[in-house]
Input
Amino acid sequence: MLSAENAGFAETAIRSAAFGLKNQWRYDVLHYYFGQTFLSPGFPLSAPGSVLSRASLVTDIANRLGTADLHAARLFNKKLFMTLQGCDVRLASEGNRRNEWTMCAPQHCELYQRCTDALDHRRHFLIEKVLPLFDRVFYLNPELGHVVPNGRFLPYSNVDVEQFDVAPPSTQGRLKIVHAPTAGRIKGTPMILNALEQLRSRYDFDLILVEKTSHEQALEIYRSADLAIDQVLAGWYGGFAVEMMAMGKPAACYIREEDMMFVPDAIRRELPVYRLNPGDLVESIAAILDRRSEWSTRGQASRRYVERWHNPKLIAKAMLDAYESPDSIFELAPGAD
Output
């Protein structure tokens, strides 16, 4: 932790730059995250109304200074890696045009206008000028493959699956459906709630919304649930679904077919997530509820999937191999494809 959580942008930038300039020479490998580096620690250079958003020349100078540490690291033969998560590099305007269903729309994301007015410009600079400086680039959401052509999809490693006990879904009695909203509407929560409300007259279930609680309390709630409904706009599942699958629970979300070309064949074949259609959520959820008898089997497949593709130990081993040789094949499960 380079600065306090409540630190301002200036303090964060100064502390980050000072640490990087002083310490990055001690390391052979530098792995950055969320499109940020020591000299570009994520503060909004292009915030609406700021001096930088009004003066493109100043913005361009600031962007170029922000890559000085990367150029210096390459000069000294450091190995550079970057992991991208989503909105660090997702082009809102392009995603809105390309996708029928997406969080990048004014009705789903409060920041959409800011993204199209200012932040997409910075993301273009990241894609075109910054990412080519890295030896390897990974992204956690398959959609990013459209804008990061030389990157590679990397599954989440947020769950230590060995620490998760299996808690199979119940096969009878009142259903327990769980959903974990985030701030705003980017998961499609209003759409999900509307669909489930329409299904109450047809199915007997409790809907549990997990929000504003500790992670430990959330996990306890997850263990008591039978079915997880994750996001329906991102086109992929999130960390919440991984935790549920690790417990042997079935999970459902929207999987965008146009993005699957960026996912390894073996992961696509084994993907156990129930697929939801955002354009007809009522009936696609109903079809899952009608198949309750297979949930235990689907939950078992989900657990195996997490053990195979979201195991942090296996991901760490593959990453260490990449650190040794950045041009090597990044294999999470050798022989899987």
Observations:
- Residues 12-153 form one domain.
- The radius of gyration is 21 Å.
